[in-house]
Amino acid sequence: MDRFLFPKWANTIVPVLGALGAVGVLYVIGMVAFGASPETTDVGYQPEQPLPFSHALHAGKLKLDCRYCHNTVEVAGHAAIPPTSTCLNCHSGADANGVVNTVAVHSTSAKLAPVRESQATGKSIQWRRVHDLPDYVYFNHSAHVRRGVSCVACHGRVDKMEKVTQVEPLSMGWCLKCHRNPEPNLRPPEFVTKLDWAPDGDPHEVGEKVREELNLNPSTNCSTCHR
Amino acid sequence: MASVTAEPIDTTIEVPGKRTPLVTGAHNYGTVTDAVCRLAECKTPLAWYVALGISASLMGMLFGLVGYLIITGVGVWGNRSPVFWGWPIVNFVFWVGIGHAGTLISAILFLFRQDWRTGINRAAEAMTIFAVICAGLFPGIHIGRVWLAYWLFPIPNQMAMWPNFRSPLLWDVFAVSTYATVSLLFWYMGMIPDLASLRDRAKGKIQQFAYGLFSLGWNGSSRHWHRYERAYLLLAALATPLVLSVHTIVSFDFAVSQLPGWHTTIFPPYFVAGAVFSGFAMVLTLMIPVRSICGIKDLLTDRHLENMTKVIIATGSMVGYAYAMEFFIAWYGGNRYETFAFINRAFGPYAWAYWIMVTCNVISPQLFWIKKIRTTPWMIFVVCIFVNIGMWFERFVITVTSLSRDFLPSSWGYFKPTIVDVLMLIGSFGLFMTLFLLFCKFLPMVAMAEVKSVMPRPHGKGDH
């Protein structure tokens, strides 16, 4: 027989092909999982900042309220990074005459040099943004903070962070998960900046109560965020 | 082997009480195999290389333009408000339509036990595949952000977002991809016995291995044949509703919208009829020269051509009826926008396109009532060229005239194609012809196994 038929050993290819097919399926599942994984969505992002600002010290030990620095968070869509002048309230260096305010804290600390430089030159401190949403997402801080979504729900325990790290993926799926089921993340609005606050009793029931009181109906349509 | 008595025979003449032979000339089983396999085995003629060179250059130009389009943006086309669907969609519908003849020939005619399909089905199916490839390209690049095309597929993702299953454009994705897959399987499955023949005749090691690989160890046992025929019947039965639904879904792209001139319930059957019409015309346009060049006139006789022209008369008349019915309903419905849409088609700024369409699609196929035209290959060829042109214009007229003037006169416009539009259409023919030429050279162009099944058994329909 002079024709080319598959020889007997070709039969061994069948399980190989089957295995390849299975690998292919696994590959697809893996890619989907990878696309949605926290690493891909920047969880754990922790850039070096121009000066070693510590939330653990200011918010944790000194118990500054979040709104002392991020003062627009209840009224504006954008939660402001405090300007240099906020730092200077406590950390002012020497003024034009070389006189240092007597209540100034660490007025000569090397770590605070960028603050004093900013004071002298009037140039902004170049903070690195950790939580960066694309510009086609119109996130509104005030809408959440005033409705009992705590800082901790999205930013984690910032009062324990030496350096700010992104703890949640900030992906659309993550946003929608809460918009579809907000109760676990709701608390009475007066406690939104109390990062260590925990509800008495079932968090879901507390959330449900808040939801009812404030008549919250988080929307999931496109125009909510993608204006 | 069948006995050989060669006498010239005119297969277009009806002899009462006798079926016309489907294979003419002094053919027996062996010579049929020789005639088909010869194409893959003999030295490639220079003309093939020249034709492939031209086609491949045009294909290169198409891909170059696609690159230019992706880098620059869809504004390189003439699509402007209010006409956002210009040539790319026209070409898409045109090519999808072309593809439908192949499946009609191989599936529907198979279900109707039309033996004359055997001579043409392989080439027609190949034409389907290549036309669907050309068609698939256009919506792919028409979307503006090509790199997000995968959002059209329902894949779980971090956005928790799925496509909207109400859009006919999404149905297109499923329809065309299913159509492409099923046609490819159907074509390939039908080819396996013939690939085995090529394998068995192959002289070189490489050919033997390649054809051996793709013929999947076919040895022609009766068990193979039994299962093959079952599977072929099932695929034919599945492909038949697919042909009808795919072009129906393509027509939904228009019919589902609210636009006067698009929002018409006649579109699904009318588009399908148009698809079969244009597809058959394209098969004839290709096969008339190919059967002479490749020397397979005995397998693809004048009778085959004549039968196809009859399908063209039938579907061409359906298309003509649909044109008339659209006008009738525009008047009868009493909707001023729809009335205007059709008056605008016939007498507006695109009247030239409309009348080209009517001349080519309504008048030219009627010439096939004349037996002389129906049985003269060059005349069929000329008429079919007109049908192809007419059917491209049909899609142009439907898409562009309806969009350019609709509800609000303040948003009326006139569509002007750019050079990129024109070159991409030409380039898509390059892509098509490149694939078709490769097919002609390397694969069995006629379904030998099927042709042999309609030949006279060692004694018994053929021309001897």
From TrEMBL, chain A:
Q: Name one Pfam family in it.
A: Cytochrome_C7
| Gene3D superfamilies linked to this entry | Cytochrome C3 (3.90.10.10)
Q: Which InterPro entries match?
A: Cyt_c7-like (IPR029467), Multihaem_cyt_sf (IPR036280)
User: Taking every annotated instance into account, which residue ranges of this chain make up the domain Cytochrome c7-like?
Assistant: 137-227
Tell me where the transmembrane regions lie: 12-36
Keyword check for Transmembrane helix, yes or no.
yes
Keywords linked to the UniProt accession: Membrane, Transmembrane, Transmembrane helix
Is the keyword Transmembrane assigned to this protein? Answer: yes
Q: What is this protein called?
A: Class III cytochrome C family protein
Which species is this record about?
Gimesia aquarii
From TrEMBL, chain B:
Q: Which UniProt keywords apply?
A: Cell membrane, Membrane, Transmembrane, Transmembrane helix
**Residues spanning the membrane:** 46-72, 92-112, 124-148, 168-189, 231-250, 270-290, 311-332, 352-370, 377-398, 418-439
Membrane topology listed for this record: Multi-pass membrane protein
**GO CC aspect terms:** plasma membrane
Question: Where is the protein localized?
Answer: Cell membrane
What's the family?
Answer: Belongs to the NrfD family.
Q: Name the chain's protein.
A: Polysulfide reductase, NrfD
Q: Which organism is it from?
A: Gimesia aquarii
